[in-house]
Amino acid sequence: MKLIIAIKNTLQTLLQPWLNAFNQAVELPLRRYDLDWLRVLAFGLLIFYHTGMLYSENWGFHFKSQYLSSNIENAMLLLSPWRMGLIWFISGVALRFIVARFSLGMFLITRSVKILLPLLVGIWFIVPIQLYAQMSQEAGLAMSFWQFYLQFFDLTNPLFNQYQAGIWPHVDVNHLWYLRSLWQFSLLLVLFIPLLHHPYMQALLTRLCERSIIIIFIVLLLPLCILKLSWPSDTFRYPMGALFLLYGYLLAWQPVFYSQLLRHWKRVLGAFIIGYLLVVAGYHIIWQNSASSQWQITSMDMLYTAQRLVGVLLMLALAQRFLNHDHPKLALLNCAVFPFYLLHQSVIIGLAFYLSELQLGGFVELLLILSLTFIICWLVFMGARRVDLLSPLLGIKVAGKYSTWQIKAGFCCGLILVSPLIFRLV
C-alpha cells in the first residue's frame, strides 16, 4: 500500500505542470469567424489543387490524366507554397482553444478518437481506390476494383510487393498523412505545454507582436529557413507542419499580432505578388534547369520558404479584413470540412480513372471532375450527418442529444477501435 501511495504521489508531482496547464481558469476569446472561413476555404482549395495535380506535367501524383500541361503548374504555384502551412496554422489555433476546454486525460482521449477513427476508416475504405488507379496505370493491373479490393485486405499478398510504404504493408495514408501527423504533433505539443504556457513565454510573445511587421516576419521565417537547410526535402513537410502548428498555437491569443496583419494587409499583398512572380520565374529558370548550381537551388529554396510564410500571413490578413463575420451557413460548411477532406482525393482520382476511358478532352474532363467531386462529397456528407453511427467515422460532430454516459461509452468504443492504429503510429 505504501508503495502504491508513493507511486501515486510521484506521478502526481511529475504531471502537475501539465495538469496545471490544462486546468488553468482562462477566459476564452470570442470565436474567430475569420479563421472559420479560412478553414473552409483552405480545405476547399485542396480540391482544386489535387485536381490540378492530375494534369501537371512535371509533378508526381498517384494518377495522371492523359491531358498533361506544364502551364497549369504556374497557377498551382500560387497555392503550393502556403496551402498546407495555413492549414497547420489554423490547426494550431484550434488546439489552443481545445486545450483550454479539456482536462489532460479528456484531451488525449478525444483527440485520439476524433482524429484516428476517421483516419482508420480512410485508410481501409476510402484510400484504396487511389492505389487501384495508380497500380492500373503504372503496372497494368488487369482486374476490377472489387477484385482488387478483396485482395487489399491480405497484408501478405504478393500483388502489392512493390507498394510497401504504408502504416500496414500496403495500407497507406496517401493524402490523409495530415491526420496522422496532426495526432502525433498533438501528443508532442502536450509535452511542451508547461513551457508554452509559462508567463515568460507569453510575455516574450507579446513583446514580439508589438514589434514591426518586418521584425515579426523575420523571427517567424528564420526557423523555417533553418529547417529547410537542414532537413531532407522529401520529408520537409513534416517539420514544416509542426512549426506552423506551433506558430498557430502560440499566436492564437495574441490580438496585437492580428491587428498588425490587418493594418499592413496591403503591404503583405504586395510582397505576396512580387514573391509569386519570382517563384514562377525561379521555377522555370532554376528548378526546371538541370544545369542549375547548388547556390541557385538553395536561393530558390529560401525564396519559396519565404513565400510560404508570406502566403500564410496574407491569408490571415485578408480574412481579418474581409471575412471576420458570421453567416447562417458557416457552421454547416465547417462541419463539412472533415468529410470533404477525407473523401476528396479518392473521389478525384476515382473519377479521373473512369473518365479517362471516355476521352472527353482536357477542359470537359477537368470541369466534370471538379463539379462531380463537390457534388459527391456533399451528398455523402449530408447523408452521413443524418446517421449518428456514421457521423464519427467521417469526423462529423454528433448532435448533443446523448447522455454523458452514452458519450463516454462511445469514446471508449472508439478508443478500442483505434488502439491498433495508435500502436502503429507511436
UniProtKB/TrEMBL annotation:
Molecular function terms, GO-annotated: acyltransferase activity, transferring groups other than amino-acyl groups
Ranges annotated as spanning the membrane: 37-55, 86-108, 115-133, 177-196, 208-230, 236-256, 268-286, 306-323, 330-354, 366-384
Organism expressing this protein natively: Pseudoalteromonas prydzensis
Pfam families in UniProt: Acyl_transf_3
Superkingdom as given in the UniProt entry: Bacteria
UniProt keyword Transferase present: yes
Lineage of source species: Bacteria, Pseudomonadati, Pseudomonadota, Gammaproteobacteria, Alteromonadales
Alphabetical keyword list: Acyltransferase, Membrane, Transferase, Transmembrane, Transmembrane helix
Keyword presence, Transferase: yes
Protein's name in the database: Acyltransferase
Alphabetized InterPro entries for the sequence: Acyl_transf_3_dom (IPR002656), Glucan_succinyl_AcylTrfase (IPR050623)
Domain (Acyltransferase): residue spans on this chain: 33-381
